[in-house]
Amino acid sequence: MPTCHWSYISKIIDTIVAKQPNSILDIGVGNAKWGSLCREYLEVYGHNYWKKENWKRKIDGVEIYEPYLTPQTRHYYNTIFNQDIVQLLKHNQLPIYDCIIMCDVLEHLVKEDGIFVLNELQKIGKTVILAVPIGNWLYTFDGDNDKESHISMWEKDEFLLNGLKKQNYYPVYGKEIGLFIYENTII
């Protein structure tokens, strides 16, 4: 499903607004939640740049499942890469971004690819925001998009990477979703 749980949305937006990034990468565009919210709170609110031709910030996205990329979804992004994030990173096809948002994506990757993505995002993101189901959320999606299945499990200690500034855990359906915010001081 091209969405995420609502419990951590305000924390992510608070972080993004405080950082005021000029370039953003949204991995797992889905229904364009992050593109829309970033445009609203970085361009419109306080600036009144509600017309697309006045937008100042670069917001790119990655979405592997092309049917999610509706005209409304595409509206909020400068560029959308309709590709697998693993392949984009393996081929060094992404520039450095001020902020990278990847919510509810890691569990859709095999573990080895997820670890690779985590390591690579730290090289191209000044701030990296991750939301990940913690523990066993495995399931096979019953629908058209086979990429929606949860195929890997993640534990809290796997996110104790360099640059970790904040971590929060949100209860959802008797389980937890971890929110991890990394700051990269090397880039």
Please describe what this structure looks like.
By secondary structure, the chain is an alpha/beta fold. It contains five helices and seven strands. The protein has a single domain, classed as Vaccinia Virus protein VP39 (Rossmann fold, 3-Layer(aba) Sandwich), CATH 3.40.50. It has a seven-stranded mixed β-sheet.
- How much β-strand is present in the residues? 25-35%
State the total count of DSSP E strands. Answer: 7
Under the CATH scheme, which architecture would be assigned? 3-Layer(aba) Sandwich
> Separation of termini?
33 Å
Helical content (DSSP H or I, runs of 4+): 25-40%
| Overall structural domain count | 1
Order of SSEs: HEHEHEHEHEEE
Pick out its properties.
187 residues, Rossmann fold, 5 helices, globular, alpha/beta, single chain
What does the secondary structure layout of this molecule look like, with pairings?
Layout: H1 9-19, E1 23-27, H2 33-44, E2 58-62, H3 71-75, E3 79-81, H4 85-90, E4 97-103, H5 111-124, E5 125-134, E6 164-172, E7 175-183
Short description:
The chain is of the alpha/beta class. The protein has helices spanning 9-19, 33-44, 71-75, 85-90, 111-124, and strands at 23-27, 58-62, 79-81, 97-103, 125-134, 164-172, 175-183.
